[in-house]
Amino acid sequence: MAQAVQKNTLYVGGLAEEVNESILHAAFIPFGDIKDVKTPLDQATQKHRSFGFVTFLEKEDASAAMDNMDGAELYGRVLTVNYALPERIKGGEQGWAAQPIWADADTWFERQQQEEEMQRLQAENRAAMEAAEELHRKKLAQEREGEKDEEVDTKVDPMAKAEAEVLRQNS
Q: Quick one: where's region Disordered (predicted)?
């Protein structure tokens, strides 16, 4: 899958340790107005990772800088300058790693509220189901008690016994 290049952002590789963002800015400013300069830091050493990105306001300025600075020397190191590819971030299309940790705070709270509401509804549904089951059990128990009462009544009253027998045969 080919990624579209960013025509106004340049990748600058081969940076010496002494080079910082202001030095990189100064090296590329002769070619045009610069929008942004970044030198990503290594998390362990807190030093840049020997490369950086320079974003120009105009595509033509970026092209001129690439033509003139690719293969040039800065602080004793030969630079590699190309158009930058879009950032490929863990987390897919949304690029969560490029966002500050608080960027999704509003949606996080919203998701938490939705989850709590869902749990509350599920608890209410469970309680309603348990209550319905208990009511059903009680009803069945009452029906069984009623059947026992009928049996007792039919033993005592021969007429009720005959009536109950006719009802059973018809059903």
A: 121-171
